[in-house]
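Summary for the steering committee. One of the milestones for this cycle was to obtain a three-dimensional model of the protein with magnesium ion bound, which we needed before selecting residues for the alanine scan. The sequence and ligand used are listed below.
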Amino acid sequence: MNQVKHIAIIMDGNGRWAELKGEKRVKGHEAGATVVKNITTYCSHNKDIERLTLYAFSTENWKRPRLEVEFLMKLLDRYLKNELATYLELNVRFEPIGDIRAFSKSLQKTIKDVQDKTAHCDGLVQSLALNYGAQNEILRAVNKIKNSEDAITQEMLSNALDCKHDVDILIRTGGDHRLSNFLLWQSAYAELFFCDTLWPDFTTADLEKIIKDFTTIERRFGGLK
Ligand code: IPE
Ligand code: IPE
Ligand code: MG
């Protein structure tokens, strides 16, 4: 039976969820933040799961209207400040991935602060992907190691990435079947789950079902069974 160590989620569908209710898109982001908390709590109680990596803001999401981007930045700041106590209570370590240098100084400080204050937690690692794009991550990694005397190895590149851990289960909510520049290297052998549920409607029962289905999949990694 497969054991799941690393779950990664493309949390998509917030805007459509709100629009279906006749609300502004940002209402969907707010509802989505509550689901982040629920899913993180659920994963923190499952001792097999070591990492939960959540796509929160992509390198391409800057293309959205300025007001929506600003709302997302404020929501992130508020979420991290409000949830610090929960991270500590659940023994969850917060590790952002992505290039956060593009964010305001004050948001960078909030991110660093939560990262530092949870650094001693040795339960689940919750990674939020913030200004994250896999192509950008790979480029930054290559630039870090390009002056090495020797040829770059797979291990060297993997260790230079923000996220150094292979993904077991990759979930995308919201009905689309694409990766949108998320964890392209780390998902080389991930099991992919696409569900129509919009992120604010995604429940721990949905996740439980996916984990159950995952356990019985025959993962061959290119070999034979
Ligand atoms: C995902 O939901 C959250 C972010 C990208 C920040 P969307 O905002 O993409 O919602 P839809 O896909 O437009 O419904
Ligand atoms: C992917 O969703 C990014 C996040 C969930 C943060 P998008 O809504 O940005 O992806 P596309 O534009 O539909 O590919
Ligand atoms: Mg979307």
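Key point for the committee: The mean pLDDT is 98.
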